[in-house]
Amino acid sequence: MPIVFTTADAPSSSSLSKVARGDLCAGCGACAALTPGKIEMVTVAPGYLRPKQTEPLNTKEDAAIATICPGLGQTVTAAGRTDPVLWGPHVEMMTGFATDPALRHAGASGGALSAILAHLIESGTVDAVVEIAAAEDLPISNATVVNAGRDGVLASAGSRYAPSAPLAGLAVQLADHAATGHRFALVGKPCDAVALRALRDTDPRYAAAFPVILSFFCAGVPSLTGVEKILDALDTDLDSTASFRFRGNGWPGRATAIAHDSTARSMSYHDSWGKILSKHVQHRCKICADGTGVAADIVCADAWESDAAGYPVFAEADGISLIVARTALGADLIVAAQKAGQLETEPFDVATLAAIQPGQRERRRALLARLTALRLLGRPIPRYRGLHIMAAARQNPLTRNLKNFLGTLRRGLRRLH
């Protein structure tokens, strides 16, 4: 099935208009959740999810979008938690892995996130998990799924480096909660977590229906066109592809396209992400102040080993997850998963994190320079509070900040012409 691109006409909503002018949409779908029947998420060229307004919004709806949209900004309060400049507030950091070998193998790193999800369901903490899996009709794309058991969590394990809008259909879970009392955990990108946290803060229905938010370190959302470039490099195409994994089934795992005749073609994570997908990341992600899930209760990431130069080693190995408890609730849930035998953990020194997550480190340090260039061009930018943007920029040499400023300025001027 070919990728179908839709035209998202210029919105009449003042909030969405600002997002569109600045190309600030993260594609989370929160605006669609707030206004069912008035906004829908559509795929636009070169393969990103964007809101399409189909009916006028009232003043209250427009104001609500302005409040919760992660594209427009984010406010973070440490509230007594440890708050390092690059990594944001947290209660505890550790490394670990799923004790279930299947979850550990299928997961993007050590399967810790999947193990925690399985524990949340099996302990009755939540009734189901809202997360992302491969779309059945377009294997390189994503779909939102609701999993109520370990088998579903296992089937959804592994990173999906393509657009997703897990918040767009939250009205279904709200209705389910109102009717049955069912509670849900949501796993989403850091921007998804920001939007859901804002929804919970402004509407008690979301707080009741979604007591747990989980996320992961995110380096940005590539377009579907970017994913097609992987297929090109593998000398295959979408019509020939029956299923597609970005990684997992090992650590870090390989990008693998399975043909209809079960033939497999694959490439390394270093090549698929480092040489292809990272060049197709949407604009909003390049000016993101939070790629580390500050708004979530629990965040997981890759706990790479480093070489002598301090750069991550991507050789295949048994997966190890970085596990971050952002809130007291998150810390309690991790302890419970350990006691239930779902998770093994070890202490982690946050001072080593900058070396094994260089992408997150460099984007945070470059952010102020990029935002300054966009402001000079008159482009709308997100409003960040409590995210230590100035302090992060001070960690960069002046030459590197200048390079990021001039690069953003040059790209912005090119768009004007």
Question: What's the SSE blueprint?
Answer:
Blueprint: H1 14-22, H2 30-34, E1 39-44, E2 48-53, H3 59-68, E3 73-75, E4 92-98, H4 101-106, H5 112-122, E5 128-134, E6 142-147, H6 150-156, H7 170-180, E7 184-187, H8 190-202, H9 204-209, E8 212-216, H10 224-233, E9 241-245, E10 255-259, E11 264-267, H11 269-276, H12 283-286, E12 298-302, E13 305-306, E14 312-313, E15 321-325, H13 328-339, E16 343-347, H14 353-356, H15 358-376, E17 383-385, H16 389-394, H17 398-416
Parallel strand pairs: 3-17, 5-7, 7-8, 8-12
Antiparallel strand pairs: 1-2, 4-15, 4-16, 5-6, 9-10, 10-11, 12-15, 13-14
Gross morphology is: globular
Mean pLDDT: 95
Main sheet strand line-up: 6-5-7-8-12-15-4-16
**What profile does the largest beta sheet have?**
8 strands, mixed
What portion of residues belong to β-strands?
15-25%
Could you tell me the radius of gyration in angstroms? 20 Å
The number of distinct helices, counting runs of at least 4 residues, comes to: 17
